[in-house]
Amino acid sequence: MASPHRPDAPELPDFSMLKRLARDQLIYLLEQLPGKKDLFIEADLMSPLDRIASVSILKQHEVDKLYKVESKPALSSNEQLCFLVRPRIKNMRYIANLVNADKLAGRARKYKVIFSPQKFYSCEMVLEEEGVYGDVSCDEWAFSLLPLDVDLLSMELPEFFRDYFVEGDQRWINTVAQALHLLSTLYGSFPNCYGIGRCAKMSYELWRKLEDEDSETKGRRAEVGHVFLLDRDVDFVTALCSQVVYEGLVDDTFRVKCGSVDFGPEVTSSDKSLKVLLNAEDKVFNEIRNEHFSNVFGFLSQKARNLQAQYDRRRGMDIKQMKNFVSQELKGLKQEHRLLSLHIGACESIMKKKTKQDFQELIKTEHALLEGFNIRESTNYIEEHIDRQVSPIESLRLMCLLSITENGLIPKDYRSLKTQYMQSYGPEHLLTFSNLRRAGLLTEQVPGETLTAVESKVSKLVTDKAAGKITDAFSSLAKRSNFRAISKKLNLIPRVDGEYDLKVPRDMAYVFSGAYVPLSCRIIEQVLERRSWQGLDEVVRLLNCSEFAFTDMTKEDTASRYRFIFLTTAVTNSARLMEAMSEVKA
């Protein structure tokens, strides 16, 4: 989403309203079960819930004890049980087992199931099959938008990616449409919309249907001028590349979860871990989050010197000045000092890990793959990576990056790498390869004619509409990445004279050390310049999205500078992407 950036306009919409709405709705649902109750929470929902309602708020509304929904049986003695869960079959079995155990023991209790963000028919069917549907009351907590930062909203649905792109399950599309509808209800109808991808188009069409049925969004001033809907499979490459800006490296190293990170003793320089919220409110983090890692240590050193200078000002102060300093500045300086120590500790941990991994050699291989040079050497590097058993997830990532940048692996390499991988990491990974192939992440080149050549012959023989259907059928068999052609068309690999200056970034490529401009970012840039997909027909065709690129403009916008807001089904990185594909759980 892009908001026009004008001096007289608010910087960004205030998304704190989304938290208040979610909290109020949850309280309302809890009060539907009057009196004391125990609350069972699914593990996935604990972190999002923590950002919405604290334990003290839950206690105020008569929640007695909190339990995690897990495999071991619950030992609650309360007469009322409330379950806050995702709409998953395993959760229904857990609830049914608990209710049936109570029935066997002759114990009568009240049970309430709150599904988040929505309930599915399949869940109700399981409760019915288990004979407990009549014993429980069901409700929905339509909590689908969590503000993680001033410009980042997450639906916290990591399963969306696998469900849709591997299993072909479209059930979450309604949730996406509902989330977009909520945003337009609260912040004004979006005047201009662009999208690319099959899922993006389905979400858009369902969202538009909801808008047409609801007149509340009409007439309100739009706080967001442009909306882009992009499918993840339009740009796998960006997600597969190693991150080299500070925020990305913190995520890769420590795993940012729901906007916060657990820094262990190696970072805190104590025997305790510390949970830290990473957003714009952390002034130190906010200044370095988008910096290339090579610049971060220098920045933190300078910050430490400035901070010391501010402390040293105390020496020449009289009593009145000292009193003002203590009451107005000292607390802020101490907080900044604490954050500075944490981020210096995090940088040292990242450095240790990356040095151990031989990060420079890894980056060099990635850049060669992106540019299409030394492919044989890069393949050898990946084979060595597998043989040394560095990491099953990292090895998969490199194989996928090789496959997508090369439009699939030649059959000999595909078989060789797959065999070596399973010999090194175990045959239980066989199904993972099937998932990767289905998602178009790791494919084998078709011998002889490529599919695109066949498609072009077919299109000459039949009408455009029929050709479209046949093309769609082909792409569903094996989606081609065409990365090299797209890269050339959109100039994704910058050509620079001399060394790329990472201290003064000249373009979006700095996030990958100047080697690659993120494809999805380039697409948004090009569409915003044109205010449509016009002139990008060849790019759209190469992305296999000829039928799934759309524009809906209702208002001309003359703004030239924008602030971007990101709404995602879940924040991802290369490791999460590979783990979603893996049939072997860590």
UniProtKB/TrEMBL annotation:
The gene is Vps33b. This is Vacuolar protein sorting-associated protein 33B isoform X3.
